[in-house]
Amino acid sequence: MATAKNRSRKDAVERQLPGWFNEVVGIGMIGFGLMLLLALVSYTPGDLPNWVGYGPDSTPNSPAHNIIGVVGALLAWLQLILFGAASYLLPLGLIWLGVAYAFMEGKLTRRTWFGFVCFILTGACLINVLELLSIWADEIMITHPGGVIGYGVGTLFFEKLLNKTGAVLLLLVAYLIGMIMLTGLNPIQFTKVAFKQFSEWNQKRKDEKSRLREKNSKKAIREAERKARLDERERAKEEVKKEAAEEKAAAKKVKEKEVAAKKAKEEEEIRKNPQVEMDLKEVPKPQIIDAAQRRKPKLEVGAKPFNKKKDKEKGISLATDAFEDYETPGFDLLSYDDSEEEPETNKDELLSVQKTIVDTLKAFGVEVTAGDITRGPTITRYEVYPSIGLRVSRITQLEADLARATRAERINILAPIPGKDTVGIEIANDNKVAVPLRELLQDEAFASAKKRIPLALGKDVYGNTVIADLAAMPHLLVAGATGAGKSVCINSIIASILFKFSPDELRFIMVDPKVVEMQIYGKLPHLVVPVVTDPNKVVAALRWVVNEMEKRYRIFAKCGVRNFDGFNSRPRPEKEEEPVVEEEVTPEEEPEPDPEVIESIARALEDGELGPMADRDEDELDFEDEIPDRIPYIVVIIDELADLMQTAPADVEMNIARIAQKARAAGIHLIIATQTPRADVVTGIIKANIPSRIAFQVSSSLDSRVILDTKGAEKLVGKGDMLYLPPGSAKLERAQGAFVSDEEVEAIVDFCSNQAEQKFEESVQESIEKGGGSDDGGADDVSDADEEIIQKCLEVIQQEQKASTSLLQRRLRLGYTRAARMMDILEDRGIIGPADGAKAREILVRFDD
User: Fold this and answer.
1) Residue 417: is its pLDDT beyond 90?
2) CA–CA separation, 30 vs 94, rounded Å?
């Protein structure tokens, strides 16, 4: 009775309310809910006033960053303190009630308000009991993710009373009940109605398909009958066309036989009387050029290719304190045997061979005119002028016949010679003339200022010196078979560098896995570290070169220069010597820090140049703060790449690729030599970044293509005969390599070692020893780029709460080798546990701490 009276009284009150009351209240609830939602979305602790206990110590944001202003910041803070992450349910619930009350003619009953309160409270309790969004709560400076209510009711009451499982089950049931009472939706009834509607729709679709299938079957029968009639007509037409095509093919075949017979007759006439209607090309008078004769160098006592004055005030980044009075070697260290009489050129013999070539070509119907003859140190080039209209491919097809006629050991045909309108036929000399290194070093081209790092390679067929510039290459690949002259070429390159640079201008890192080639240079003061012979330590040496390259680029960025030359030639302020006055600094009058220094350090930290301060030691920071006045070149020489690619192919290839891609502007250059030019040794990545190459004699054209991307090296005669691909050019140059004996190399090394004592870089040596001596492959020697990736790996592991190689591959888009290396580094640092089959690694640290 009382309930009926209350209900009738409530209905009477509602009838007395005006019609616009529901809309006004609903719109007000919607507006208030939107205001709370916007305040929560744009909430930041920096907007809170200082009188709030959870506010920041510094001055509040002015104006406030919150969309609703300071009031919005206070409202959001109050909600977050009370309900935590469940605060977002409060504005959403108010918006839902406002929409239902204003537009859907809903009623705000006690059931609705009870469900609303239960929905919010149980949500806060569930978030706190399940320990969700803890990191988010720390970021916005609230104590509990479920607020004070979630912590007090959920954790302290229900979890203590029912344990975590029972509390979660009870709160989840209460949460669903509150949501049903708030929205008025019946999930079970809704599921039944949805299933019923889906079943009716599915049945209707099946009936429609069956009717359509029946209709299509009748239509298919009629279509098949019509198609059969059309096929019969088409067959009749095809038979007629086939008969016509056969007649046409027979006529065409007869015509082709007639054309072939006519063509054969014309070829027979040309063979009997070749080019009767073509005149031979008018050519200049042939010359005999003897480029094999040695040039008589100036034998002055104490002569040097470079005479430079040392500036003792210059400071170099690598150790240079012991190289102030260093003098470069002189020409007297190189022997020049002029007592032996060189054989004179037998012009009659050269003309006889040329006549043999012309007659042999004429015998095969190829009419040519004799051209110049150039006798080089190793080969003699015979030039011929093809007649007008003659294809040069007809000459190259007769290579074996020309070799037989001239009795040559090996022959090579250049069709045509690059830059000329002649075809060159190269035949090896019976008596080869050596090219002494001293003759090349005394050439004007070697001392030219245009070449920053000149390399004396040899002499070409025309007697011109081949002087390369390592700085323009900027890297070099030398390959060839055993005994073809590769080691002598490396010795001449090193000797060329020693004649120009002192240890404070250029430093060497030599890698010699064979332990036979580079040991003679072990006493050089130019070495950064002793000659590296252990293949396991090479990866650490290359990794140090990569770190040195990145360090130099950071210095260039601080100085505002682009490359190595710009840094060494940058204008420097003149230093005035001032007397040093020592002043005692009392504790009361401490020197104030320079604001410019503080600003520069802050800018470097923002740009990521200094990296994580916790990962750097004091020596590293002191070095980066002190910018050197000048820095030297660094030349890395690897004598045998195949041995390294068998030990650690992935790491060696990756480090070589990084050096070859970026090290040019940093003054770091790479020289790689190998006697096994296979595709798995000289990989595509290495070739793509080393455009300059030198190829000596190889065993097959396949090896030549691996080195030069074209054939030709298999036709060389050995003993220094080489093909040189200069930088920025696709034209191969054939030359005879410079010769330097072991005695001359020892004399140069002894002279350099007597000038100054060796001063190795201890930090570099320790890094290499560490990288080669441990079984982990040098995991502790981590570059700055690897350190950045490790930080990203830690973020991924913290988010996912698990660690595996496949996870890092997917999230960071790393290759398997790189991701596995990152996992090894994290394991060595004690962050993750060892591998356990296919299971994820165990995380040994707490990121909250």
Assistant:
1) no
2) 6
Token look-up 């691909």 returns 725
Of the residues 731, 762, 793, the one at which a domain ends: 762
Mean pLDDT is highest, among 51-60, 89-98, 245-254, for 245-254
Residue 532 DSSP symbol: B
pTM for the predicted model, two decimal places: 0.56
Structure tokens belonging to residue 82 = 């009370």
Total residue length of the chain: 849
Provide the domain limits for residue 214. Answer: 187-245
Tell me if 713 is assigned to some domain.
yes
- Most distant CA atoms of the chain, gap in Å: 142
In terms of C-beta density within 10 A (0-12 exposed, 13-18 middle, 19 or more buried), how is residue 1 classed? Answer: exposed
For 273-316, write each residue's pLDDT tens digit. Answer: 554 444 555 666 777 777 666 666 555 545 666 665 444 444 44
Of 405, 440, 447, 509, give the one whose Cα is nearest residue 744.
440
What radius of gyration, in Å, describes the C-alpha atoms of the chain?
Answer: 43
In degrees and rounded to multiples of 5, residue 64 shows phi and psi of: -70, 145
Three-state SS letters, 437-455: HHHHHCCCCCCCCCCCCEE
Average pLDDT (816-820) is: 84
Helix segments in 385-449, DSSP class H: 393-396, 399-406, 437-441
Is there a binding annotation on residue 482?
yes
Residues 704 and 675 sit within 8 Å (Cβ to Cβ) = no
Quick count: other Cβ atoms within 10 Å of Cβ 655?
21
Residue 450 in tokens: 């245009």
Give 497's pLDDT tier (boundaries 50, 70, 90).
Answer: very high
d(CA 706, CA 681): 10
Instruction: Reduce the DSSP state of residue 560 to 3 states and report it.
Output: coil
**Residues 767-788 pLDDT 10s:** 777 654 444 444 445 667 778 8
Using CA atoms, how far residue 726 sits from 2, 468, 489, 624, in Å, is: 107, 8, 15, 37
DSSP letter, residue 333: G
Q: Tell whether residue 481 is among the known ligand binding residues.
A: yes
In whole angstroms, what is the distance from residue 666 CA to residue 475 CA? Answer: 13
Q: What is the CATH number of the domain that holds 446?
A: 3.40.50.300
Our count of domains for the chain comes to 5
CA distance 172 to 46: 35
Segment (H or E) for 672 = strand 668-674
SS3 content of the chain, % helix, strand, coil (to 5): 50, 10, 40
Residue 843 phi, psi (nearest 5): -90, 120
Question: In angstroms, rounded to a whole number, what is the distance separating the alpha carbons of residues 120 and 623?
Answer: 59
Measured distance CA(64)–CA(74) in Å, rounded: 11
Whether the predicted pLDDT of 37 surpasses 70: yes
Residue 484, marked binder: yes
- Distance between CA atoms of residues 618 and 627, nearest Å: 15
d(CA 609, CA 601): 10
Looking at the structure, do residues 666 and 534 belong to the same domain, yes or no?
yes
Question: Residue for token digits 């016509």?
Answer: 244
In whole numbers, what is the pLDDT of the chain averaged over residues? Answer: 77
Are residues 137 and 209 part of one domain? no
Contact at 8 Å (CB) between 539 and 652? Answer: yes
Helices (H), 725-761: 742-755
Q: Is 660 one of the annotated binding-site residues?
A: no
φ, ψ of residue 693 in degrees (nearest 5): -145, 155
Distance between CA atoms of residues 46 and 55, nearest Å: 7
Give φ, ψ of 735 to 5 degrees.
-150, 165
Q: Is the pLDDT of residue 619 over 50?
A: no
Question: Does 578 score more than 50 pLDDT?
Answer: no
**Could you give the 3-state DSSP secondary structure of residue 625?**
helix
Known binding residue 839? Answer is no
Task: Please provide residue 373's backbone torsions phi and psi, each rounded to the nearest 5 degrees.
Answer: -120, 125
- Residues 733 and 712: their CA atoms lie apart, in Å, by 11
Give a yes or no: residue 204 inside a domain.
yes
557 is in an annotated binding site: no
